[in-house]
Amino acid sequence: MGAYILRRLLLVIPTLLGIMIINFALVQFVPGGPVEQAIARAQGQGDVFGGFAGSGQTETDLGDISAASDRYVGARGLPPEFIAELEKEFGFDKPPLERFLGMLWNYMRLDFGQSYFRSIGVIDLVLEKMPVSISLGLWSTIIAYLVSIPLGIRKAVRDGTSFDTWTSGLIIVAYAIPGFLFAILLLVLFAGGSYWQIFPLRGLTSDNWESLGLAAKIGDYFWHIALPIVASTISAFATLTLLTKNSFLDEVKKHYVMTARAKGLSERGVLYGHVFRNAMLIVIAGFPSVFISIFFSGSLIIETIFSLDGLGRLGFEAAVARDYPVIFGTLFIFGLMSLVVGILSDLMYVLVDPRIDFEKREG
């Protein structure tokens, strides 16, 4: 197993390098880069997101850009010297290959640079937004498993009954409802839209959170994330439930189950003493990947609807504003996380069922 893990870890390097090369190459052909964004601001055309207004970088800030633009009020364009200064500030006075190699060298030293349009480092920016995304991803995954596993087992045991039929109908409806539409419905019903004002409309905590006691802080936290978690869990629990049911049904049909029954074991003993471990292999071992998928996918819309400032919104705003240090820094960090999670999923398989040997399968 050690040799297998080592090979997987070594594969992370070329895989991550390929991801960075492809995305860096694609960005070179996308119009409206950071220089164009800065020029648009200097000409008073504003910004796509008001949240990006700030003081800028260490050497040249947006205040200097605004001052420069004031000197050219009424001009049809900005002077070439100003544009050249912007290109130098953003590093676009160098050829693409040199910029790419320099970026990788900095990443190897864990230097992810600073945001072009915010006076904050990429790592600090990610850490600032991380609590929101972790809250949504972690609790949504836990709740999905707590609901899906018992429900999936129950559906497998009562396969073909009325219980299985009507719960399957509910699952299909839940899976078909878009998360953002369900989120809006929750807001309208329970966040003061048109009916009840039970849950808060925005934020992860209340304004007076710091002054609350420990128990009150915990209650306030869950009070704020209740609706976002329900909205982000709706489709995940449907998939896991069907996966659990089908996994149990596949195991029940195998010969060792018939042998266990022939020995006189009760149905409960067969189900939880023999079937459960094998059937849960694919479900439990997939926990890391399920968490990552909920962590990344769908968070943008949920965060926007519930006014949560997390990684999904950060990535979208960075892409629109062409904030390349944030785009490539987060791409590198989360790409590395996803690849490592893939290795953790394999380790989970071995932990759940030690009989699995990936080295023999590769051989």
UniProtKB/TrEMBL annotation:
GO terms for biological process: microcin transport; transmembrane transport. One of its GO terms (cellular component) is plasma membrane. The keyword Translocase does not apply. CDD domains: TM_PBP2. It is found in: Cell inner membrane; Cell membrane. It is a multi-pass membrane protein. InterPro entries: MetI-like, MetI-like_sf. Keywords: Cell inner membrane, Cell membrane, Membrane, Transmembrane, Transmembrane helix, Transport. The lineage of its organism: Bacteria, Pseudomonadati, Pseudomonadota, Alphaproteobacteria, Rhodobacterales. This is Microcin C ABC transporter permease YejB. The chain crosses the membrane at residues 9-30, 134-153, 165-191, 221-244, 281-306, 326-352. Belongs to the binding-protein-dependent transport system permease family. It comes from the Bacteria. It comes from Antarcticimicrobium luteum. Residues 130-345 form the ABC transmembrane type-1 domain.
